[in-house]
Amino acid sequence: MGDTTSENFLRVIVDPDDACVDIVAVHGLNPFNTKFHAERTWTVHSDSDRGALWLRDFLPKQLPNARVMLFGYNSNVAFETSISGVREQASNLLNRLQLKRRDAANRPIVFIAHSLGGIVVKQALVETKLNPTYEVIGRLTYGIAFFGTPHQGSDKAGLGEIVATVTRAVRRDVPNSFMESLKKDTLFSNELIENFKHQLEDRHIISFFETKPYKKHGLKLGLIVDKKSATLGLPGTRETSIGLDSDHDEMCKFASADDDMYEQVAGNIIQLVERAVEDAKHRQRLADLALPIASPGDGNNRIAAQEQLKIAKDQLQAQVNLVQKRTSDMEQECHQLFRLTNSNRDITYEWYKDQVRERVDGTCMWLLEHKHFQSWLTRESGPLLITADPGCGKSVLAKYLIDYGLPQSSTICYFFFKDHDQNTVRQALCALLHQLFNQKLPLIKYALPYYIKHGKGLINSTRSLWEILQMAINNNEAGPVIVVLDALDECAELDFANLMQNIRSQVCSSRSKHSKLKYLLTSRPYNEITSKFRDLLEPFPSMRIPGEEDSETISQEVNRVITYRVNQLRTKDPTKGQMEGLSPEIKRHLKRRLQKITHRTYLWVHLMFDYLDKEDFKRTKKGVDSAITAFPRSINEAYEQILNKSKDDPIVRKTLCIMLAASRPLTLAEMNIAVNLDNKAQSIYDLDLESEEDFITHLRSWCGLFISVHDGNIYFLHQTAREFLLADLMSPSNVRPQLQWYQSITIQHAHAVFAEVCLLYLNLFNSGVSPPDTPDTTGSEVSQSVDWEALLDYAATHWVVHLRKGDMVDNSAMATATLKVCDPNVHEAWFDIYWEPPPYRPKEFTNLMMASFLGLKAVAMLALEGGAETEAKDSFGRTSLHWAAYEGHEAIVEMLLDKGVDINAHDANCGCTPLWLAASKGHESICRLLVYNGAHIDATDNCGQTPLLCAAMEGHCAVVNLLASDGADVEAKDKHGWTALLRASTNGHDNIVKLLTSKGAKLEAREELNGRTSLLCAAGEGHCSIVEIFLRHGADIEDVDKHDNTPLLLAAWSGYAATVEILLKSGANTESKDCLGGSSLLYAVENGHIATVQYLLDYGAKIESKDDRGRTVLQLAQLNHDEAIITLLQREQQKFYPRKRHRRTY
């Protein structure tokens, strides 16, 4: 029975004296948690106890210079604890490997991994990017041989489900909760799959996959990891895919060296290892040859060394080209990500610009000739704000400036804000970065580290996007950059503050740092916008051009547009029956009449000529006068006239309500369903839908010029059309009696209308009712062209939003219909769409859980009245109380507590209580309610985290204060030794750090993995204010972690110059070295952090410092071709060598 406990180890099983490469083998899941699973994964057992372990018994004869190691770990626990467990074992592997390589730190590495062991290896490579201690291991990992590792989903199953099948194959006693956790776990999310994939971009990969189905232990599971799942799909020669005549379990076991399958496997691994050794030799030779060039010495020797270096470089060029190709592929993926499109059909930021009309010759001169614009053009940096009233052509102006009016020697990037569609800062930043990298691709180097870390999730991090933009435009390669942002007034209200804060920061920073960044901004002259620029008037006194004050000049330019449109006008000649232009006399008369009209704008002219294009007026002066008299003098009157032409007022109002409430422009197919829905339909096929061609004809007859259709999407003609309809409940009404449409719809009513549409539609998808026969489409072109489910995606993801904004959450009349949508028979159709990605959503969701999750109190009450079970649990093991607490629905939490639900129930997924979930999301009032009603304040999840620790990690200061004040343990540690203070310090939550230190939290506490204190964590993440807090509280500035990293070393490695400056001012030792012999200056130079290098030199860092290979900081800079740092170091060296000649030695 001594063989029943798995061990953690990295054991050398082959160790030749002349080893020049390390091979590390990593096993997968351990069926019985046995001690010798690391060996048995690779062993065929015979009659002897020893068996044939090919890594030890066969391979060394073919690779005599390879050291071979086996990594043993508790794989079952690692994968049961999900991503945190895998990360822990990845760090465990790296830590042990680094210790084994103390005397051979420069050897290349080849990993060999079976099944889920490959996920541990991939996570280890991710960690080498995030933790500087292990950077060398990542850099020297040449290749990986994967045996049946599931990298992605197959045609039949998602990745999580494949991993669950692997688990089922090797573990017969696996709990159902574990299986469900694997299927939905974030470890196998698309984002993390992409993240892993990028770690393999510059490696050489062999992917072995099984070709025989698994039939053991009474299980017939087929191909557990098929070819699609077991291969990465890397292009070209980056990956070799090989099918093995074996099942998943036996594919890495070989009875003899003569085994045909072994010869196939060994041949490819030998080739991989030999290439790794050859590559390492070339790189070492290149580095050695660089030493005499970088060092002072005899000129002839330097010339010879340069020639040798050139030869070596030529030999490496093929490999360099391959690496560049791989980097180029990643750059293209990253670049394309910022375009925010998934297909050629998606609307792009370019499309919005293209929809803006071209200027008429002679217009826009009011700006181009303005002295402030001319002054702004000559400046190197600074903002220019152009304001003008609605309909005065600001977007036309912006488009002209982008295409023709701005210096083409500058890098011009733009974004057109559009209300309710393209209105977020995140969208703007992605568009700007896409254009910047399109014109200056080398600058994408600033985005790649973020892309490697976050994958596709990068585009959702506004902070990261701002950081990338700032770094890119500060680089000299960017040159002059002009950012054009049109229609600031259409930026989302919650985003505008963030936009202004960062624009102010950038323009002030560019002024002080002599950057060449300029902003050109357009907006309506709203005080809430212009007031945000007042603090910039002092440094930039001529930054604003108020177009509203140049109305006469703009009117003269409108006259040019009138002249242009009159000349283009074609009407039907009744005598000839065809379209012809007007006579010169009628043209002059029409032009004079239009130009006499006061308060004319570009928008009014556009509406007038669209009206004249369609109006059948007499081609006489009286006919012209009659037509002009019939057309309204104001925009609002024009809109009113357009809508009054419709003979179907109810359907027009319904259409406009839907457009006002919609979170994005609807497609024609979606609107076709929405306007035709009523409560009589029993199935989607009862809807009386037209073909798209017929529907668009009707839509235009209802709404006329008030709407426009582009690429199948429906829009308001102009932002003023939306404003015309919306009632402002906050101000007194000035509605003229004859304007029945003006400000006639409240946004609340619009949402209520669309909410009802969504509910009616979703209730037609009831899986508990026998589906009706689909309509007979034989011979019916209309039925064949109609998409009956076109509205499903939108309704599924937005119905709750409309219900809330329509103030109908507690509406008893709507509660019955809403309860039906929450019924499992109905929500099966839409919940997968709402919960993206669907494989990870909870199953067995009751109507009470759904109401609790969505915060629908009236629906929850109906469910309870109908006998809903309050203690029922879903597939995550969560009750309705868990979901209400997690989502922040206090009224439902209170209602469930009144029903006596178990307040301390732990879910099966993570072991979380309702209090833990509420704390993790920062719901202070719910936390208070739960604590008051007896929730265990220090109840932990499966990782040992208390609610307070989780709240501190997530940055919820009010919750931390509440829990700490009510007696929560501020020193509680999770299973990895993390305290609340450690988590807050790492994540940069300085307000929580202040709070916890005031409550006596210990600064000396260390997390277990790297042995870091709060000061070390804060310094390593560059959190200046937190570092200052700890230093004021007496933290040891020379404290070290397990790898001898000091706070200064960690900050210098990552280039956190401000943190480095604080530590140096506080007396940090510049010469401290980590366990690998690296100093702060060495790491700052190696990683190209020039500001950090300057600080270190200013505070006396020794320029003669050498790394573990004997290279000086200057040599490192020269190897990196970092001219700026080379110049800086050479200036310092000139100071150093004279002092050295006169220095006495002892």
TrEMBL record:
Domain DUF7069: 554-628
GO MF, one annotated term: transcription cis-regulatory region binding
Keyword Transport: no
Record SMART domains: ANK
Keyword Repeat: yes
Segments annotated as ANK repeats: 876-908, 910-942, 943-975, 976-1008, 1010-1042, 1043-1075, 1076-1108
Domain DUF676: 61-133
Domain of life the protein comes from: Eukaryota
Domain named GPI inositol-deacylase winged helix: residues: 643-728
Coiled coil: 306-333
Keywords (A to Z) from UniProt: ANK repeat, Coiled coil, Repeat
InterPro entries, alphabetized: AB_hydrolase_fold, Ankyrin-SOCS_Box, Ankyrin_rpt, Ankyrin_rpt-contain_sf, DUF676_lipase-like, DUF7069, GPIID_WHD, NPHP3-like_N
GO CC field: nucleus
Domain Nephrocystin 3-like N-terminal: 362-524
Family membership noted in the UniProt record: Belongs to the putative lipase ROG1 family.
Record's protein name: Ankyrin repeat domain-containing protein
